[in-house]
Amino acid sequence: MTHNISDMRPFPLASVLVLPLLLAACAAMPTRADREALAARFVGGTEAQLVTGLGLPSRVFTTGTHRFLAYAEATTQMVAVPGGGWGGPWGGPWGWGPGWYGPAAVPVTSLGCETAFEVVGGTVRGFTVHGPYCG
After folding, report:
1. 60-100 pLDDT per residue, tens
2. Among 72, 82, 65, 69, which Cα is nearest to 118's?
3. Which residue, of 2, 17, 35, 99, has the fewest CB within 10 Å?
4. Which residues of 89-118 are buried (b: 16+ CB within 10 A; e: fewer)?
5. What is the largest CA-CA distance in the chain?
6. pLDDT tens digits for 28-70?
């Protein structure tokens, strides 16, 4: 069976416009309260329950009888700032001038959030949540 290019339907434009909105909704940042509520569910439970619920930790620290299991989450955020580049409001769509495009106009910021659980004698005793991406 052969296909002509004229037999193929174009990808609907509405799908292209809706897809970024769906992805943004899936990537919504949880609030600090959401993170703390999730972590609080593990306090009083065992270390095995913590690892079963959240997966392997990013790091493990042991000091004396205390173990700290750290779960790190990171994201990269691109922030548009005014600067020189191609196009933009003043340079026109094809001109060179102050605009919103170009390597100098899009700095990248890395943000992170870490939840560290304290485990004593195999039991989760508490947690801390810290970092600029924690909501």
Report:
1. 999 999 999 999 988 776 666 555 555 555 555 555 555 55
2. 69
3. 2
4. eebeeeeeeebbeeeebeeeeeeebbbbbb
5. 71
6. 678 899 999 999 999 999 999 999 999 999 999 999 999 999 9
Which of 57, 61, 60, 62 has the alpha carbon at shortest distance from 73? 57
Look at the block and give the residue holding tokens 């769906």.
22
Q: How many Å apart are CA 49 and CA 51, to the nearest integer?
A: 6
- The burial class, CB within 10 Å (0-12 / 13-18 / 19+), for 50 is buried
